[in-house]
């Protein structure tokens, strides 16, 4: 797949700095990258703030939305906001991320039901598991297994392959 802009979405209550040098490394692979910084929001407020920042960057469509951690469950809402802005999404990538669930709530508050379009996902999905440790299975191992069951592209990053290289290859494979 050829993407327009790769949007790196950090976990809520983290910052864009949590991506480290990943944005710059992806740019060195020739990708257009945006990493919105939304440190103080969660759930629907995170979705709204991220969407405003994406709009302000005037990204090249189509977008590839890449989520880390708990931002994964927000991808359907972010995609819905992009669709409303007439910005197509070409793919979704989960990097050690939670998977979205229908009717999922943010922090258990019923009034914070996360939005999900009825036809989500409307683009291919992939899952990148970084530094897998078979001796210490985690919830991300379960998410990786579920992604495989859904028929998504999956990758387990293992040295000497770097995270930027694995992510770039996964985006291309979508």
UniProtKB/TrEMBL annotation:
Top-rank taxon: Bacteria
Sequence segments annotated as region (Disordered): 150-174
InterPro entries: AB_hydrolase_fold (IPR029058)
Protein name: Alpha/beta hydrolase
Biased composition (Polar residues): 152-174
């Amino acid at each position: 797949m050829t993407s327009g802009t790769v949007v790196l979405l950090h976990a809520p209550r983290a910052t864009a700095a949590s991506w480290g040098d990943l944005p710059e490394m992806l740019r060195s692979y020739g990708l257009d990258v945006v990493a919105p910084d939304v440190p103080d929001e969660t759930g629907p407020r995170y979705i709204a703030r991220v969407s405003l920042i994406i709009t302000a960057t005037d990204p090249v469509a189509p977008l590839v939305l890449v989520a880390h951690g708990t931002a994964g469950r927000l991808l359907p809402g972010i995609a819905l906001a992009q669709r409303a802005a007439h910005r197509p999404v070409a793919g979704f990538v989960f990097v050690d991320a939670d998977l979205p669930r229908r009717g999922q709530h943010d922090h258990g508050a019923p009034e914070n039901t996360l939005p999900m379009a009825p036809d989500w996902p409307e683009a291919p999905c992939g899952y990148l598991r970084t530094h897998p440790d078979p001796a210490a299975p985690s919830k991300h191992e379960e998410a990786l297994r579920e992604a495989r069951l859904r028929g998504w592209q999956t990758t387990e990053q293992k040295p000497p392959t770097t995270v930027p290289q694995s992510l770039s290859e996964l985006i291309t494979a979508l």
